[in-house]
Amino acid sequence: MWANRSVFDYHTRHAFLPAAPMTFPSQPPASAASTGADVARAFKRALVSQMHPNMLFAVLLPFLIALVGAILLLWLFWTPLTDWLRVEASQWEMVNRVDDWLVTVGLFSLKLYLVPLLAAAILLPVSGILGLAIAAVFVMPLVLRHVSKREYAGLSRLGRNATVVSVWNAIWVSVIFALGWLLTLPFWLVPPMALLLSVFWWAFAFSRMLRVDAIVEHASPEERRWLLARNNIGFWIIGLICALLNLLPPAWIILPVYSSLVYAHYGLDSLQRLRARQPLVIDN
């Protein structure tokens, strides 16, 4: 049964026949203290990595793509979108009542400001998720190459169909993000849902998109499933922190690459510790 299987020891670099099949550690999710320490270490390491000239240069790609995407979206869709929103807003009874009251008391017209704000709230996140998707598919390999050489040189690449998995993951996360963002826009009128929903959807985008790309090249499918389940809370905490940073416009410039570095350090460090606890079974 085991004639065609061997075990590779990362320390001795030799293969030998296993006595039993490899099994992943059966244990509950990491404790809060352990997860917090791992997340903090990932952010610290990512900050150091971000200062490298290669990573500073990598910042330009997703930022420029998001910027060009925003300009094209505003140029192509601003007028038809705002015209459609004005027609729709004229049929919203609550908006009409508030608008009439504001105009009567001599303040301002709600529709005058509401329509442009809604249009910006629809178009700008689309360019943002485009920049994040570009970072996940095209920048993450550069990030992994950078950190692998310096801190994870002994970590073998056992991922399968990494590009296909990365592209598919970026597509479905972007679609869910866009649909969820649009469908929950009406709730923005209820304070403080605008802030909460924005943070939630960006935390979803960061977590679901970058956690897969961070380990897809190095982890085998079995390892990837184990790591995603084991570190689910940690991945979401990183996504939440990145989503909060995303509320600060200056952070938009570096966040796609910096968040990729954080996820890369967190994911590869977890994979390294997993393999240190057991040998690796390789099919011949």
TrEMBL record:
Subcellular location: Membrane
Chief site of localization: membrane
Membrane topology: Multi-pass membrane protein
Keywords, comma-separated and alphabetical: Membrane, Transmembrane, Transmembrane helix
Transmembrane segments: 55-78, 117-144, 165-183, 189-206, 227-246
InterPro entries referenced in this protein's UniProt entry, alphabetically: CysZ/EI24 (IPR059112)
Pfam families recorded: EI24
Keyword presence, NADP: no
Protein name in UniProt: CysZ-like protein
